[in-house]
Design a protein that fits this description.
The chain has one domain (about 10-235): GHMP Kinase, N-terminal domain (Ribosomal Protein S5, domain 2, 2-Layer Sandwich), CATH 3.30.230. It is built from five helices and nine strands. It has helices spanning about 80-95, 100, 120-140, 170-175, 205-230, and strands spanning about 10-15, 20-25, 30-40, 55-60, 105-115, 155-160, 165, 180-185, 190-200.
Length: about 240
């Protein structure tokens, strides 16, 4: 029987006092600090177009892994970091109406404090809450059709381990998986991104369907955790 429940999720809002959106997001033993800030400008290539922008930065702190991960310095960012922060940015922009944001930028920082698999999916799921909190002062009381986020976003990992579909892979499962996939979806269950690959293995149509069904199940649980954490501040109806 495939695993049906994601790892325990704990969400602590307002974790720091300096960022308008600040969330400590725990998924099992993975811990990510997500912060979001609203800046009164956009990248030069967007200036004068009446649209805002959402961008993300991702980092694994040295103590997040054992052995220690070397700190990235002097603009030297490895390929994995670049790929993940672009994924986070794409995922957030997919549920945004950038014209309603105006010529401002939402900057999201996702810093992994402890890594045990699923750091990119935890970053996306936590970043959504940080964004909502960062927007609260300017957009908390506006009509729904004026709010700059159209839907929520959440992500989860799935994989095939020893021939069995598995949900929300921790580090050991991720290392042992024959197939590894990250799935990003909106709250209305539309896909944003699928990242799936066979690790010295292949998978067929039925296995892909099983993984997607399991991912939808897990993402539903993440969305419920997000909704519970935001409570009355949940802006998506």
């Amino acid at each position: 029987m495939p695993q049906q429940v994601i790892r325990p999720v704990e969400i602590q809002r307002s974790f720091t006092r300096t960022a308008p959106g600040s969330v400590l997001y725990r998924s099992g033993e993975t811990v990510v600090l997500c912060t979001a800030s609203l800046e009164p400008s956009v990248p030069p290539w967007l200036a004068g177009k009446g649209k805002g922008w959402i961008t993300a930065e991702y980092n694994m702190l040295p103590g997040s892994t054992s052995p220690r991960k070397a700190r990235e310095r002097q603009g030297k960012i490895d390929g994995r970091t670049t790929e993940i922060q672009r994924l986070i940015g794409r995922s957030l922009r997919a549920v945004a109406d950038l014209e309603k944001l105006g010529e401002r930028s939402l900057v999201v920082d996702c810093d992994v404090l402890q890594a045990d698999g699923g750091t990119r999916t935890a970053s996306i799921s936590g970043a959504l809450i940080a964004l909502v909190d960062a927007l609260k002062n300017d957009f908390g009381q506006v009509a729904r059709d004026a709010y700059p986020l159209k839907d929520s976003v959440a992500a989860i990992s799935v994989g095939i381990c020893d021939g069995i579909p598995r949900l929300d892979l921790d580090y050991q499962l991720d290392v042992d998986a024959q197939v590894d996939m990250n799935v990003v979806m909106t709250g209305s269950r539309r896909f944003i991104e699928l990242q799936g690959t066979g690790e010295e293995a292949t998978f067929d149509d039925q296995q892909l369907a099983d993984l997607l069904a399991l991912a939808k199940l897990g993402i539903g649980q993440v969305i419920e955790a997000q909704r519970t954490a935001l409570g009355a501040d949940w802006p998506f109806g």
